[in-house]
Write a structure and sequence with these properties.
The protein has strands at about 5-10, 10, 20-25, 30-40, 45-50, 55-60, 65-70, 75-80, 90-95, 105, 110-115. About 0% of the residues lie in helices and about 55% in strands. The protein is mostly beta strands. Strands 2, 4, 5, 6, 9, 10 and 11 form a seven-stranded mixed sheet that branches. A four-stranded antiparallel sheet has the order 1-3-8-7, with no helix packed on it.
């Protein structure tokens, strides 16, 4: 069973910044890894993820403001700048294993943007 440990998050003002980090217990066979988020009453959506080949994909609502960093095979960080109230959500780290296509999720971390 793959474990994902998330850190970061919290409260920020509009226009502020936060950083999230996620480290997986699995270091090999990762197909992609990244972050999703879910706001109250909304579906879970892609924030950013990196594929095995190093290609990074961003959700439309965060492109240009958020940056996904991939400092190690099993670690991703999300630098969130120019935060907006609508970025408020629970952020989940997600990892997909290549050989069995299983997805693994972190427990989620709350990000709240409020003045």
């Amino acid at each position: 069973q793959v474990q994902l440990v998330e850190s970061g998050g919290g409260l920020a003002r509009p226009g502020g910044s936060l950083r999230l980090s996620c480290t997986a217990s699995e270091r090999s066979g990762i197909d992609n890894m990244g972050w999703y988020r879910q706001a109250p009453g909304k579906e879970r959506e892609l924030v950013a993820q990196v594929s095995r080949g190093g290609r990074i994909t961003y959700g439309d609502s965060v492109r240009g403001r958020f940056t996904l960093l991939w400092p190690a095979k099993n670690t991703v960080s999300l630098q969130m700048n120019s935060l907006k109230v609508e970025d408020t959500a629970i952020y989940y780290c997600k990892l997909k294993i290549a050989f069995n296509s299983n997805n693994y999720w972190g427990q989620g971390t709350q990000v709240t943007v409020s003045s």
